[in-house]
Write a structure and sequence with these properties.
Elements lengths: L2 H13 L3 H8 L3 H9 L9 H18 L3 H8 L8 H27 L5 E3 L2 H18 L4 E8 L1 H4 L16 E7 L1 H6 L1 H14 L4 E6 L8 E4 L3 E7 L5 E7 L2 H11 L8 E6 L1 H5 L3 H5 L5 E5 L12 H10 L4 H20 L2 E6 H10 L1 E4 L2 E4 L2 H17 L3 E6 L14 E4 L4 E4 L12 E4 L2 H14 L5 E4 L1 H27 L1
Parallel strand pairs: 2-3, 3-4, 9-10, 10-13
Antiparallel strand pairs: 1-7, 2-5, 4-8, 5-6, 6-7, 8-16, 9-14, 11-12, 13-17, 14-15, 15-16
């Protein structure tokens, strides 16, 4: 038993807590708490601080409730008051965790012990994939490469609505994963939505999606240098057994054998960073076409008034320290003015994001995070009205998320499509240190299916369309209210 396990078991017994209660408090299965107490297992290092804080809150509450403070001080030979009890317990847990972690690392290093585990019980398999594996991946203090030959369709239809993670890794995690195109395109409207939700739920991970034609029988997950999981599936593609290998030499042997299954020619969607995205003129080529479908999950960076262009260029040059981006913004100003005069554009926007834009003015123009001033926002609205009068081929579709319960938190990725090229943009990435900025879509079939999906979206009861006349009527009816909202936001900022 580890020092941490001994302490935890002592605290549980002393406070009169039930294992089930402790498990509920920290959000783990009872079997995990038992292993921490009795089998020298430890929580993942990434999760340990939160777990120890939760345990300290629970134990201090129970000890004070039962008026056992004096007995606690005597048992642990510490000076403690009701006010300091929580921090004393937390520090005890933290220090014992450190000691046990060092002992475990030294023991493994000294003996070269790498345990191979075979999981066959349904509960053990669930706990491993639902808790232990993601926590272990987050605990590695380095960038990671993960190969997953399992069909992503099995993941995107499995509780994806609850999958959004609030824990952001400190390092880049790239996941290469297979996708069964036959299954996917057999019901593309369903799977397109689920894949979109999946990307949003895991926006801090960089996924590369591959046609799984070369890997659909391998059933392997590999964390390079760290872990390989070999899965046996039943006829319904459910995992019946999982063999977990942690010997780095064996793991990398499996990695080398598996990597050739992920061929570049089978790449469907590719997580892309800004430099890679711009180096071959992708964005310029994208806007050299017509018939656009653009879904914006944050703000509205199109049809901008000329009065704000210099400010955006200056922001790119001064705040972003990026002369290339400043030049790109200037080029796009000219390109977009021509596009908006005559091209066909369908803009899809969320009702909530429009309201938020009215309040804070945030847009992400190319890679420049910019906050429109209240006056610029008003000029922006007028610019939209002026342009749509000149070009009747511009339409707006407002999506009301109130009609889409339980998925509003998974509508955070923008979509840019011209029916020939398609890319996704992750606004959240511009406020975090990890995750991709973009996804480029390399499959013509994907682009076709997305184009049809967005066309069909116009017919949904939660999607409200506005042509030039509709936009003007809306402005006539609600313009004064919108202006008051913008003025109020300025008052809040100044206050």
């Amino acid at each position: 038993m580890s020092a941490y396990g001994t302490l935890l078991k002592t605290l549980i017994n002393f406070s009169g807590s039930k294992l089930s209660t402790v498990a509920e408090e920290v959000g783990y299965d009872v079997s995990y708490i038992s292993k921490w107490c009795n089998k020298a297992k430890l929580p993942a290092s990434k999760m340990a601080p939160n777990i120890n804080r939760t345990l300290a809150n629970h134990f201090s509450h129970e000890i004070l409730k039962h008026e056992d403070l004096s007995a606690f001080a005597k048992l642990f030979a510490v000076d403690v008051t009701p006010e300091t009890l929580n921090s004393v317990i937390y520090n005890l847990l933290k220090e014992n965790y450190k000691e046990s972690s060092r002992e475990a690392a030294n023991d493994q290093h000294a003996h070269g012990i790498y345990e191979t585990r075979v999981l066959s019980l349904a509960n053990d398999i669930y706990e491993f994939f639902d808790h232990e594996l993601p926590e272990t991946i987050l605990s590695y203090n380095e960038p990671l490469e993960v190969l997953c030959t399992l069909d992503v369709c099995r993941f995107i239809t499995n509780n994806v609505l609850d999958a959004a993670s609030h824990i952001i890794p400190e390092h880049e995690i790239n996941v290469k994963i297979g996708l069964n195109t036959e299954t996917f395109f057999a019901d593309s409207p369903l799977y397109l939505k689920q894949l979109y939700y999946f990307i949003n739920a895991h926006s801090h991970l960089a996924f590369d999606f591959y046609d799984d034609c070369l890997m659909n029988s391998l059933n392997t997950i590999i964390v390079k240098d760290h872990m390989a999981i070999l899965c046996a599936l039943d006829q319904y593609s459910r995992i019946q057994t999982a063999t977990v290998i942690t010997d780095p030499e064996k793991v990398n042997q499996i990695y080398i054998r598996t990597l050739p299954s992920f061929r570049v020619t089978n790449l469907l969607l590719h997580a892309t960073e800004s430099d890679e995205f711009y180096q071959h003129g992708y964005r310029t080529d994208f806007y050299a076409r017509d018939n656009y479908q653009i879904f914006l999950a944050l703000g509205f960076e199109y049809l901008l008034p000329v009065e704000c262009w210099d400010s955006i260029i200056r922001t790119a040059r001064e705040r972003n320290k990026d002369e290339f981006m400043a030049q790109l913004v200037g080029q796009l100003q000219i390109t977009w003015e021509e596009i908006f005069e005559k091209n066909t554009l369908d803009f899809y926007v969320l009702k909530s994001s429009l309201l938020k834009y009215m309040e804070n003015g945030e847009i992400i123009f190319t890679d420049v995070v910019y906050h429109m001033t209240p006056e610029e926002r008003k000029l922006h609205i007028q610019k939209v009205l002026d342009i749509t009068k000149k070009n009747p081929n511009i339409h707006f579709y407002v999506i009301d998320e109130e009609y889409l319960p339980n998925v509003e938190h998974l509508l955070r990725t923008s979509v840019f499509n011209n029916r020939k090229k398609l890319f996704l943009k992750i606004p959240e990435r511009y406020h975090t240190k990890v995750g991709p900025h973009f996804y480029s879509v390399l499959s013509d079939r994907f682009i076709k299916e997305v184009s049809e999906f967005l066309d069909d979206l116009k017919t949904k009861p939660y999607c409200f369309g506005y042509d030039a006349d509709g936009v003007q009527k809306f402005a006539d009816k609600y313009g004064s209210l919108v202006n008051r909202m913008i003025d109020l936001s300025a008052f809040k900022i100044n206050k």
